[in-house]
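Need HypC/HybG/HupF family hydrogenase formation chaperone's 3D structure for a figure. Predict it.
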Amino acid sequence: MCVAIPLKVRGLEGDWAILEISGGTMKARSDLVSVKPGDYVLVHAGFIIEKLEPEEAKKTVEMFSQVFSVTGKDLPERKDEC
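Structure prediction for HypC/HybG/HupF family hydrogenase formation chaperone:
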C-alpha cells in the first residue's frame, strides 16, 4: 500500500516538477495536473495526481508527524516509489 504525503512544488523543468520533501527534493511528472511553485501536491507512481489547499496539506503533514513521533520514526526523506 502506498501513502501519499503532501509535497511542496519548488520549481518546474518542462513537464517535471521539483518537489520538496523533508529538506530534500525529488521530481515528479506534472502532465496530469497544472501546478506552479508554492502549490502542495500528492504524487503517485511518479505523477502529480492532485493539488491540495495549503491548510489541508499542513494538517496532513502534522498528522503524519504525530504518527511517526509515536512510532519513533521520522517522515521519509525521499521516496521515489509509490
